[in-house]
Design brief:
Blueprint lengths: L3 E9 L3 H9 L4 H4 L7 E2 L12 E8 L2 E13 L3 E8 L4 E10 L4 E10 L3 H30 L11 E7 L1
């Protein structure tokens, strides 16, 4: 079973509580997801975030619709939350969101462990498309976060993006 890891860090020159509050509103995920994913939240709003909260989405990947059911595995505001895919396009999707106060503001760290479906064929699909798509989604997310917190992220030396790699 091949699994892959994507790790991203981003500095935002805003207080921890303000940054976490943005991410605590599940509807903001629509703002952070590229239009080509056709992401829609299906869960009625408002969505109360807590451990074991369930959120239903619908995405399209390369034209194919995929229902996605996420469970919030861990909810510890304002420092961390973890979402896991219970049903959806991946065999495994485990996304850890960390928020750390720094002298400059808040460091956002995303660590995603994912495994494509379909065994060895999934590994090939990851090499051909999935990894690039996941990276493109997080590149878009990074830019949108900068826009949301305008002029609070530009030029921060601590921004890093590490390509998805095999575990």
């Amino acid at each position: 079973m091949d699994a892959y890891l994507l790790h991203r860090e981003q500095m935002i020159r805003r207080p921890l509580e303000e940054v976490f509050a943005f991410f605590a509103d599940a509807t903001n995920l629509e703002l952070l997801t590229p239009p080509w994913v056709h992401f829609r939240i299906l869960t009625p709003r408002p969505i109360k975030m807590h451990s074991d909260a369930i959120i239903h989405y619908l995405i399209r990947w390369r034209g194919l619709p995929f229902p996605w059911r996420t469970r919030i595995l861990l909810w510890r505001p304002p420092h961390i939350f973890i979402d896991v895919q219970e049903t959806g396009p991946y065999r495994i999707w485990h996304h850890t969101h960390r928020f750390e106060p720094t002298a400059e503001g808040t460091r956002i760290t995303d660590t995603v462990r994912y495994a494509p479906p379909l065994g060895p064929l999934g590994g090939l699909m990851n090499a051909l498309w999935i990894r690039r798509d996941v990276e493109a989604i997080f590149d878009y997310r990074h830019r949108r976060i900068e826009e949301v917190f305008a002029d609070s992220a530009a030029g921060c030396p601590e921004e890093i993006g590490i390509p998805a790699k095999k575990l």
